[in-house]
């Protein structure tokens, strides 16, 4: 449904403003019906949404599909290691929660040596509050660790010892050094170029959080920062799946290759044939 997303994100008027001052948002005809109802369906699951979080879009389900395919491959591999899934910019928690919910279906395939850990980060405390409420709604609050962080800057996490099977426990920056797990990053960072924001549909620019839309000058700034953080932390994901703007295919591939020269980079189209998903696979990963 990229078409819907494109129309929701591209049409419109002046810079985002809560322009209907004096009138409660919900009385505004442009107020998104998903916020009005208070929930949305994503990956066949119900998610609470408020104007503190982006309304999950159907094309983002493709990221969940890709992540689950990869997890399925790795958990059933004889060489399987623990898997760490990072959802960067979790918003309502839709990606992390959909993955967590569907992992239980893989338990029959899973090698006994393999555990899947999920961390979801967001810079917005308000978004994290909604994400945690959604995790609770689905009985997954103890399965996902939510961290307020500028991308991965506050990532202080290590996998629990195998035999202990304890809850994730912050122990320092070990995640940077560890090669004892397969790292999968799934992310839908803001990617609208700043100059295009005034032209988004009113229902988007007036009501969805600017921090969830604004990708900086060319729209790719947050991805660049994420790549730089990964390199600085010595993290070389086995797989990175990122949702990108339909104009960013070439830019995304070139930039990812610059930061990760040995990775296999691909840009996939969504159902509306728009370039939408960047995948970066670490070819040197021995378990691949
Ligand atoms: C496009 S929304 C995606 C939300 C949700 N993951 C989804 O797919 O529907 C981007 C999210 O990234 C968060 N975000 C923006 N800048 C960030 C940063 N520097 N570090 C972490 N999260 C950030 C926003 O608060 C927002 O929740």
UniProtKB/TrEMBL annotation:
Return the Gene3D superfamilies for the record: Vaccinia Virus protein VP39 (3.40.50.150)
Positions of the region Disordered? 1-30
Q: Which GO terms describe its molecular function?
A: protein methyltransferase activity
Q: Which Pfam families match?
A: Methyltransf_31 (PF13847)
Look up the domain of life of the source: Bacteria
Q: Name one GO biological process term.
A: methylation
Q: Which InterPro entries match?
A: HemK-like, Methyltranfer_dom, N5-glutamine_MTase, SAM-dependent_MTases_sf
Protein keywords: Methyltransferase, S-adenosyl-L-methionine, Transferase
Domain spans labelled Methyltransferase: 80-153
Q: PANTHER family of this UniProt entry?
A: HEMK METHYLTRANSFERASE, MTRF1L RELEASE FACTOR GLUTAMINE METHYLTRANSFERASE
- This protein is called Release factor glutamine methyltransferase
Q: Native species of this protein?
A: Candidatus Daviesbacteria bacterium GW2011_GWC2_40_12
Its organism's taxonomic lineage begins at: Bacteria, Candidatus Daviesiibacteriota
């Amino acid at each position: 449904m990229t078409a819907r997303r494109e129309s929701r994100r591209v049409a419109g008027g002046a810079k985002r403003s809560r322009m209907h001052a004096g009138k409660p948002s919900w009385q505004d005809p442009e107020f998104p019906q998903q916020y009005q109802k208070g929930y949305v369906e994503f990956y066949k699951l119900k998610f609470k949404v408020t104007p503190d979080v982006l309304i999950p879009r159907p094309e983002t389900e493709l990221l969940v599909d890709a992540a689950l395919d990869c997890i399925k491959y790795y958990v059933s591999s004889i060489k399987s290691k623990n898997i760490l899934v990072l959802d960067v910019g979790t918003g309502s928690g839709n990606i992390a929660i959909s993955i967590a919910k569907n992992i239980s279906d893989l338990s029959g395939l899973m090698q006994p040596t393999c555990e899947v850990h999920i961390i979801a980060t967001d810079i917005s405390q308000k978004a994290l509050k909604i994400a945690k409420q959604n995790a609770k709604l689905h009985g997954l609050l103890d399965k996902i660790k939510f961290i307020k962080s500028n991308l991965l800057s506050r990532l202080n996490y290590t996998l629990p010892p195998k035999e202990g099977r304890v809850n994730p426990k912050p122990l320092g920056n070990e995640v940077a050094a560890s090669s004892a797990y397969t790292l999968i990053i799934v992310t839908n960072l803001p990617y609208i170029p700043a100059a295009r924001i005034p032209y988004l549909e009113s229902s988007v620019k007036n009501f969805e959080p600017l921090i969830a839309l604004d990708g900086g000058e060319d729209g790719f700034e947050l991805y660049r920062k994420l790549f730089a953080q990964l390199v600085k932390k010595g993290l070389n994901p086995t797989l990175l799946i990122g949702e990108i703007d339909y104009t960013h295919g070439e830019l995304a591939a070139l930039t990812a290759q610059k930061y990760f020269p040995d990775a296999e980079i691909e840009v996939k189209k969504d159902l509306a044939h728009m370039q939408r998903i960047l995948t970066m696979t670490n070819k040197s990963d021995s378990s691949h």
